[in-house]
Design brief:
With about 190 residues, this protein is an alpha/beta fold. The protein has five helices and eleven strands; from the N terminus they run H-H-E-H-E-E-E-E-H-E-E-H-E-E-E-E. A five-stranded parallel sheet has the order 1-11-6-3-2, with helices on both faces. Pfam families: LUD_dom (PF02589).
């Protein structure tokens, strides 16, 4: 190793020397940045359901009563900014968490949390066995490019596509290993 250089600096110096004088190559970036979807709510609900999540489309006037029915008898973590009182503080004994989201993606059925108001911390959204997420219809975008436009890359982002699941070496599906076993999504229209 050269005197005073870290291993990282030495490797980067070798890479720079190897590519010195190479011609600049234009890389076309013809990514699709807009997609037209006629029924964002319907497509999102379908795709979230494909991931084995429980999905309900609820008129906004019925949202409060539906949330009450979903969490009845459960000890729920309610993050600051969710708009409800009575949250459970102990993650070790909580049955679930209820959150809002930053954005939802119709094409992939993905919910994105940026852990802003009402979205909780990563621990709050990954430790409990049940996650109830309220998605407002105007938070649903057609695809990933539109979602990325709405997100702040400096915030911690958690992308959720269905309940936590993994497969062992014999392809047996196991749910709830790395996060909530049950994801319930209420889409408020």
């Amino acid at each position: 190793m050269a005197s005073g250089m870290s291993a990282r600096e030495e490797i980067l110096a070798k890479v720079r020397a190897a590519v010195a004088g190479a011609p600049t190559v234009e890389i076309p970036r013809g990514y699709r940045t807009r997609r037209q979807v006629d029924d964002l709510v319907g497509l999102f609900a379908e795709r979230v359901g494909d991931y084995r999540a429980i999905v309900r489309v609820v008129p906004s006037a019925e949202l409060g009563a539906t949330i009450d029915a979903c969490v009845h008898g459960r000890r729920m973590v309610v993050p600051d900014g969710f708009g409800r009182d009575g949250g459970w503080d102990d993650l070790d004994t909580a049955d679930g968490v209820m959150t809002h989201c930053a954005v939802a993606i119709a094409e992939t059925g993905t919910i994105v949390l940026d852990h802003g108001p009402g979205q909780g911390t990563r621990a709050q959204t990954l430790v409990p066995d049940y996650h109830l997420c309220v998605v407002l219809a105007d938070q649903i975008v057609p695809g990933v490019p539109e979602a990325v436009e709405r997100l702040d890359p400096s915030r911690p982002l958690t992308w959720i596509s269905g309940p936590s699941a993994t497969s062992d070496i014999e392809l047996n599906r196991v749910e709830g290993v790395h996060g909530p076993r049950t994801l319930e999504v209420l889409i408020s229209t």
